[in-house]
Design a protein that fits this description.
Distance between the termini: 35 Å
Structural class: alpha/beta
Radius of gyration: 16 Å
Low-confidence stretches: none
CATH superfamily: Vaccinia Virus protein VP39
Mean pLDDT: 96
Number of helices: 8
CATH topology: Rossmann fold
CATH architecture: 3-Layer(aba) Sandwich
Order of helices and strands: HHHHEHEHEEHEHEE
CATH class: Alpha Beta
Strand order of the largest sheet: 3-2-1-4-5-7-6
Largest sheet: 7 strands, mixed
Length: 206
């Protein structure tokens, strides 16, 4: 938890309680279903929660903003972001039922009234969203066609509506088709831990 407060000292008491409750909830579920790799659990807050919150360093979601988390897996980045932005609305989707079962339980037990989890493929989902967030589900070239028709034309933010994608490594080739529009933010610009050295927030307005 200390690592979260190091970078987000402004969290309210309620947000601190919810963030602190994440680890025991995921430990409990991980004993039943392998939601997060066992070796990763000892770095849970750094590798999963803080990594998710890198998006909060790029954009401040406004009240009533609609955010879609595609391929949420165990609930990342959607669950930490829904704690961070309690007045924004989050829809977390994944095609794997057991993962959505975990995410639904976490949302329920944290009392996150601004978040919901659904077992559905992105291509099948109806509706429009201000931002689409995701964490390295596939290549951006494959991801964009799944979601490009789901981005709302109504703009509320200084940052234009679009995709906020968490990814690491050398993305030169992957991002080449989007080179005129994409903006890459190095997570190491604001988090000093070694884990974030090659990690990035990819922003693609749509």
């Amino acid at each position: 938890m200390d690592i979260i407060l190091k970078y987000f000292p402004e969290l309210t008491e309620r947000q601190r309680e919810q963030m602190a409750a994440l680890l025991p909830l995921y430990e409990e579920w991980n004993a039943q279903i392998n939601v997060i790799s066992r070796k990763d659990m000892e770095h849970f807050y750094e590798h999963h929660v803080l990594h998710s919150l890198a998006i909060a360093k790029v954009v401040q979601f406004k009240p009533m903003c609609e955010i879609l988390d595609v391929g949420t897996g165990g609930g990342f980045p959607g669950v930490p972001l829904s704690i961070m932005f309690p007045e924004s609305r989050f829809t977390l989707i994944d095609s794997i039922g057991k993962k959505i079962k975990v995410v639904s339980d976490v949302i329920d037990r944290l009392g996150l009234g601004n978040a919901k989890a659904m077992q559905i493929r992105a291509e099948e989902l109806e509706g429009e969203y201000d931002f689409i967030v995701s964490r390295a589900v596939t290549t951006l070239g494959e991801f964009v066609p799944w979601v490009k028709k789901k981005v709302s034309k109504t703009q509320y933010h200084p940052l234009r509506n679009g995709i906020l994608y968490l990814k690491g490594g050398d993305l030169t080739k992957e991002l080449y088709p989007f080179r005129h529009k994409v903006k890459v933010t190095e997570i190491s610009d604001f988090f000093e831990e070694e884990y974030f050295e090659t990690k990035k927030v990819i922003y693609l307005p749509l």
